[in-house]
Amino acid sequence: MNSQNSQQQPTEAMYRSIYDNALEGIFQTTPDGQYINVNPALVRMYGYTSSEALMQAQPNLKGQLYVDPNRRRQFQVLLEKKDFVENFEAQVYRCDGSIIWIAEHARAVRDEAGKLLYYEGLVEDITSRKQAEIALEQAKEAAEAANRAKSTFIANMSHELRTPLNAILGFAQLMQRSDTLPLEHQENVGIILRSGEHLLNLINQVLDLSKIEAGRINLNPKNFDLYRLLDDLEEMFRLKAVERGLQLIFELSEQIPRYVCTDETKLRQVLINLLNNAIKFTASGSIALRIQVSQQQNTTYILSIEVEDTGVGIAETELSDLFQTFVQTQAGKNTQEGTGLGLIISQKFIQLMGGDIQVSSVLHQGTKVSFTIRVETVTANEIENKIHPLRVIAIAPNQPTYRILAVDDQPLNRQLLVKLLTPIGFEVKEAANGQQAIEIWEDWQPHLILMDMRMPVLDGYEATRQIKITTKGQATAIIALTASVLEEEKAVILSAGCDNFLRKPFREEEIFLMLSQHLGVSYVYDTQSQPQSSIIVEKDNRTSVTRITSLTPQWLVELKQALLYVDLIKLNQIIAMIRTQDEELAKSIQIDVDNFEYEKILLLIPDDLN
Fold it and tell me: In 3D, which of 66, 54, 65, 59 has the Cα closest to residue 30?
């Protein structure tokens, strides 16, 4: 029995083996910090040849062990106060002067009477972990610096691109108001407006990509009519589907709420992108958009949305690459169109709207893209005011003469506002910076200020603060004019005291609506004018498959190449040649080109051209 017990009980030799072979450093010190015992692991950790050498070189913790002497004192205070210390991290010197990171665990050992006998503990070398943490932190700081640089780039590029577009679109709108402009010039102005709108759309897309890369994309929820949005999309894509010989199906559950709140712009972009892709990669069959309610709790709805086609499909090996930036499937490469950014942008937008996206596909059979979004229901009365469809021509009778102060460091932008508002009946003065704005405001007391936010001398933020801090300033409406596309800029602008804001380039109807909302002004409208910013095209003048395939193969090849490379000079030459054969076809192609519907024409051209 005694022999069995001796085998089960740890012996002094076993303890010694554990002590000598431990991976962590083990130590005992006197109450004043002098080493009593150190194991081989601690000797190696500190770079000494023996325990005797370590104890002779560093007889106590008051020596040169800690790189920061304050850490040594903190360790000692904690140990004396609590009788134990866990995971105390510090940098220490090794024998050769190099520095390592350690984590110490120590406790006080006392006799039965409570007298302190010695301290004992473990030391871990955590240098590798700390180096990884430091590298990670440095990478994080570098990424944050890169994001700040990207945000600065976005702000600067937005200002530099959108500001001149504000003048281009603004003065083109002013020219459209002229009753004496010859018909030829009216058509030219219309082309300028459409080109400017197209360029603005491209700029917005590029800036969206930049914001995604910088992590600056935010949700911008608004109340809107979901049924109207879907009707617009169905009308937009039905003609494209018919001309491709495809069936377009919109299947909507009766439980879908009509008036909802989410980011309408992002939802529209996602659906347009998915429907465009479906039509692009489908030669026969159908395109279906299906929406149903998957969950509902009080006013919160989870909508399940899918776009399914009977197109070329995606190989299983390519599905994992769909959400990689700038990566295209083989079908996308074959069409020589797109950038590979559509789905990744859609994914980011959907995630912002509280959902996720999945793609399933069978090669040569079709693809289904499904996603969910969260929406809140609202009432019809909560839908935002729509812009009046008719053109404003004057302030309605029996109203005050409203004083408007236009503040902008760019003379063209001030001139645009003066020429837009003065003929309507507003009294307008100009200021080139925030300081001038304050001086004119004090003497003239305008009813409303249109305030640019980025200006020299004194910017719009500070000028607004100085005006709004006064009692008189509280009665002055201030509308910020900004070229920024960052959503968080809105909160900064409103916190500065602005009552509302408009993004450049703005449309004249947006200015008139803003003045109406904040001044209560009512207008006289031109009842003979068409809805603004609209492009009216008769359907039977549109390009058709039958008519375009009547062209010679050579013309079709040249037309396709000119469209793919957006060679406007070559396009004009080809359209002129087509006009000699088919006037109506040339006219309809010209309309599509003017409306930047290059893809629509490309879809009509046979794929088997050499």
Answer: 59
